[in-house]
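Archive maintenance. Older records in this collection stored only the sequence; we are now back-filling the structure field for every entry so that each record is complete. The fields below show one back-filled record exactly as it appears after the update. Entries are processed alphabetically, and Glycosyltransferase involved in cell wall biosynthesis is next in the queue.

ARCHIVE ENTRY
Title: Glycosyltransferase involved in cell wall biosynthesis
Organism field: Thalassotalea piscium
Length field: 296
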Amino acid sequence: MPKISVILPVYNAEKYIEEAVKSILNQSFHDFEFIIINDGSTDNSLLLLQQLAKEDRRIMLITRENKGLIATLNEAISLAKAEYIARMDADDIALPLRLEKQFNYLTQHPDVAVLGTGYRFMSEAGEVGQKRRTLTSYEDLKASLFFGNPIAHPSVMINYKLLGSKLKYLDEYKTIEDFELWCRIAKEHKIENLKEVLLHYRLLPSSISGQNIEKQILSAAKVLTQQPLLEGKKNTIKLLQTTYCYSINSANYIQLLLACFKLNWINLFNPKINKLNLFKRSLFALLAASKKNLRT
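Back-filled structure field:
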């Protein structure tokens, strides 16, 4: 039985798929299965994948009609044989030590359910940018969920042994399926990041994460109201919409200031979240908004 199952959904990724797949095949850690599902691609992705599968027996290639990302991820999870599942995207590059570093950390910290990594954004042409600021601790990440998604989805390795049937993406949260999953898991288990950059994350104009921004913000706010510390609280949807979208939406600075104040006040006497971490995230949100206002 392999120690890691790497899952990779593919849809029309002919331009980058070979580089992405080879970045996994060339890892320093070798004991893994590589589950690749071709989700009804209409370009040459399948031909490239078939050739790669001939060259490496660790690849399990499945091809079928298009069902969408969430269905494809859940199908890949259902096929996984290992105790740890690593995500990968068809246009990103995993650095050579990624699987080794994550596997070692998770085996040494069996209470951690989700482990992301540091990453750098990468352009269509492969130009790598500066390192992104990465929060690492469980308490920091829990607080950070109120201000955005603190974990890069294609960087994660998940403790399948710990989560079991809880590891499932939900159809109703299309475009923020990863964010909803982190919020749900963080209620009961630790989520963390390694600080080290182990992934180059390609940004494309057609990226789904750049589409339907308002819908994403509303969905994220609804997810957050289901967190134990906010369940039953009134008027939290609008508050969370303001705090969550500060980095991707030109929110009014005064509205953001008030929202951060209210969010901290709601949680002032709640033992389930670290107040210092939440306060720090509020300051970061306000600082980012200040810089944005100065630039404009």
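Update note: Residues 239 and 258 are 9 Å apart (CA to CA). The chain is about 40% helix and 20% strand.
Entry marked complete.
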